[in-house]
Amino acid sequence: MRGQMSHPDSEVLAEHQAGLISGRRGAKVAAHLATCDRCTAVSDQLAGISVLLASAPAPAVPDGVAQRLDTVLAAEAARRSDSERAGADRSRERAAEPRRNRRGFRFLAPRVLAPAAAVVALAAAGFGLSHLGGLANSRAASSAAGPPAATPAASSGAKFAKTAAVPANAAPAHSGAAPLYGAARGAALGLPPHFTVISSDTNYLRATLRPQLEAALQAALPTPKALGVSLSPSAQIRACVSRVTSGTSPGTPLLVETARYQGQPAIVIIASGQGGDPAWITGPGCSGTSSNILVMTVLPPGISAP
Amino acid sequence: MPATDGERPSDAELLRRHVAGDGEAFGELFRRHRDRLWAVALRTVCDPEEAADALQDAMVSAFRRAADFRGDSAVTTWLHRIVVNAALDRLRRRAVRPAVSAADEQAFEALVAQDFDPARAVDVRLDVDAALRILPPQQRAALVLVDMLGYSVNDTAAILNTTTGTIKSRCARARARLLPYVAHLRGDVAGNRSAGESVSPAQGGDA
Questions:
Q1: A9, B128: Cβ pair inside 8 Å?
Q2: Which of B38, B171, B197 sits opposite A61 (nearest CB)?
Q3: Which bin fits B21, alpha (ψ -120 to 50), beta or left (φ > 0)?
Q4: A212 contact partners, CB below 8 Å, separation of at least 6
Q5: Does A81 touch chain B (CB under 8 A)?
Q6: Segment 1-40 of chain A within 8 Å of chain B by CB
Q7: What is the DSSP track for A126-168?
Q8: Phi, psi (deg, nearest 5) at residue A130
Q9: In this predicted structure, which of A30-34, A132-136, B23-27, B47-51 has the lowest mean pLDDT?
Q10: Do B35 and A38 touch (CB under 8 A)?
Q11: Closest to B196 (Cβ–Cβ): which among A9, A58, A285?
Q12: pLDDT of residue A127
């Protein structure tokens, strides 16, 4: 027999089930349900959705995420106690005295240009290679902006070179749409500190990550055997570094390297932190909107301290 | 009254200690609820990387804004609200900005497109989490809290800062929207689409 109304659609049935339809209309739906097997079945299925959803296993927090949160939290706590203690003027402190945190920016020099990291391609397309000798115990504070005029140990014979980074008016991230042509321009635009991206063929592995990262930082010291290709960072990498390091270390990173992690293209970022240097590995898609962090750890303090 | 060692301080007590300068209290509080907050973030944004970013944003925000907590809701409600807002915020930004990864973005757009045609998805094996992606974010957030995490409609309304009626309505519409997908998932074809419409032949027959 025909009901008093045509079949209500599933949304009406769902609303009815949730008690949202009252009065005459509610009574009509109820009356229809009493006589319509089809709508009763739909109604049962709607109720079954809640059961199905409730039975979905809760996702566990991935280890990498848990570690990262712990680290960010520790940095946040350190920052708070810092600012309580010292009135929050770390930048002045940095400018004034060459302490550990001011050790400058060292970049790992790789042996060979990594084949396929998308980010490398991006960077190379946007900005030429820099072939700058010397490394970076950047005294750069003095020569704030210019591309690092070859620092002392123009590590002989470095076919591929590393770069001294330029400091550090640690301006907040400014996702500049304008193309950047170097540190001078970056500084002129009030962009975050200039840094160089090193491209390497290192394959970081989960099992040996910390020793590898420590070695990378050490290799970034001015030793002749560290060779590499340095690139100006693309806008994407710039934004990525700002995003990843935000909340932990507003300054310039110690190392930014495009390499591999577990065989896949990845970006390595090591920043300077108090009580340890935070290090991140991100996927090649890391950007200002999504950090795509694969793993995060903290290296013991003082690895690369002079 | 400070809790002594061995006692488990309440959430509110931990938050008070944090505001008073205790360096450990916030971490303890956050870890206590981290799993559920992660589940909320993950299922609201449907992407582990975005979820991690959202949870990190939320954690830092809660850490810094703890003094603003007025105690007119439970600490857990407050924490959840910050996480859900961070998650929705990420979705919003992702929706208006050009994508970094065009492929990702296209996939996402396809999934959230209003005119997404369920019949075309019949061949696609969708699990629950994937099915959730078809929901508009606000509906998804409500449904995740109520149906997946078991929060009451009242608590969910408090978390999402809206009325219980709105929560009920969002959940109802979300369930109706999920019906074709979930029915398919269970190999059950009887409930496809709205009952008043003819059932497409494409919807029958596959497990």
A1: no
A2: B38
A3: left
A4: A202, A204, A205
A5: yes
A6: 6-11, 13-15, 17-20, 38-39
A7: HS-EE---S-----TTTT-SS-----S---TT-SS--------
A8: -105, 130
A9: A132-136
A10: no
A11: A9
A12: 37
* Token reading at A168: 């550090």
Of A89, A279, A286, A246, the C-alpha closest to B59 is: A246
| Model confidence at A257: pLDDT above 70 | yes
| A213, pLDDT greater than 70 | yes
Residue B71 has pLDDT above 50, yes or no: yes
Partner-chain contact A52 B169, CB within 8 Å: no
User: Residue range A177-183: average pLDDT?
Assistant: 34
Q: Contact at 8 Å (CB) between A17 and A46?
A: yes
Report ipTM (2 d.p.): 0.72
Q: How many CB atoms lie within 10 A of CB B207?
A: 6
Over 90: is that where the pLDDT of A113 sits?
A: no
Distance CA A210, CA A299 (A): 7
pLDDT of B84 reads 96
Q: Say how many CB pairs under 8 Å bridge A and B.
A: 156
B186 interaction partners in chain A (CB closer than 8 Å) = 48, 52
> Contact B153/B168 with Cβ under 8 angstroms?
yes
Per the CB < 8 Å rule, is B179 touching A62? no
Q: How far apart are CA B9 and CA B6, in angstroms?
A: 9
% residues pLDDT > 70 (chain A): 56
**CA distances, B29 to each of A12, A31, A82, B10, B66 (Å):** 41, 50, 22, 9, 12
Cα distances (angstroms) measured from residue A144 to each of A20, A99, A190:
65, 18, 12
pLDDT digits (tens, 9 = 90+) for A127-138: 333 333 333 333
CB contact under 8 Å between A11 and B173, yes or no, is yes
Q: What is the pTM of this model?
A: 0.52
Q: Residue B86's pLDDT is what?
A: 95
Contacts with B52 from chain A: Cβ below 8 Å: 62, 64-65, 68, 291, 293
B164-203: per-residue pLDDT in tens?
A: 999 999 999 999 998 887 665 554 434 433 333 333 333 3
Q: Do B191 and A6 touch (CB under 8 A)?
A: no
| pLDDT at residue B182, as a whole number | 67
A50: nearest CA partner in chain B: B147
Query: For A38, which of B27, B30, B195 is closest by C-beta distance?
Result: B195
**A5, A7, A10: best to mutate for the B interface, most B CBs within 10 A:** A10
